Amino acid sequence: VLGHIFEKFVITVSELGDESELSLDELAEMNVSASGEQLLEGNRAVGAYYTPNYIAYENTRETLWNRVRTALADAHDDVAVADVPDPDTFFEEIHAEDSPYAVGLGDVQEVLDGMTVLDPSVGSGAFLMTAGEVLETWKYRCAEDGDGYEIRRDIIRRSLYGVDVLDGAVEVCK
Question: By C-alpha distance, which of 37, 44, 174 is closest to 119?
Fold first, then answer.
């Protein structure tokens, strides 16, 4: 929510230009809607664009899982990228007694522990938050008795990095 408000603020304020004062009539002329439609259009002047959560989730999840699949295939000669299905199917099948995979949960945990995510235009952190949530879900599924707090703390400390040209965006992301 805070990120959504920040991005709306940045996009709206950057449209104001250098005027020192703005009347309510002038603000109304800017067509700043309560629905946030201008967030989806973004503001090219400051490079601020709002990413809907469902897009951040799908893109981040797919990208991270492709990295896991590739790392498992690189580390194990008997695993091909094509042999590793989507994460939901993989975790369901690997927990079965007759798992069809040549790798174990420890191998997946090792890959996840070594992953880092960098968002070079972090904004309010939509992609980093999503990456953290996805990594947390997968690490929890690898752990036999994982402590959710410790898993989150470890991910935040070791795996998530973001930068932005707007100092305010970095503060919101923190």
Answer: 174
Q: Contact at 8 Å (CB) between 167 and 46? A: no
Contacts (Cβ under 8 Å, ≥6 apart) of 72: 79, 84, 103, 107, 108, 111
- pLDDT in 10s for each residue of the chain, 174 residues: 445 545 544 444 444 455 555 555 654 555 544 444 444 455 556 566 667 788 889 999 999 999 999 999 999 999 999 999 999 999 999 988 889 999 999 999 999 999 999 999 888 888 999 999 999 999 999 987 778 899 999 999 999 999 888 787 778 777
Query: Does the model's pTM come out above 0.70?
Result: yes
Distance, in Å, from the CA atom of 155 to the CA atom of 116, rounded to the nearest integer, reads 9
Residue 63 contacts residue 127 (beta carbons within 8 Å): no
Q: Please identify which residue in the block is written with the tokens 């991270």.
A: 64
* C-alpha separations of 79 from 27, 76, 120 in Å: 59, 6, 32
Closest Cα partner for 149 from 136, 130, 138?
Answer: 136
Kindly give the pairing relationship between strand 160-162 and strand 117-119.
Answer: parallel
Residue 70, beta-bridge partner list: none
**Tokens 């599924």 map to which residue?**
141
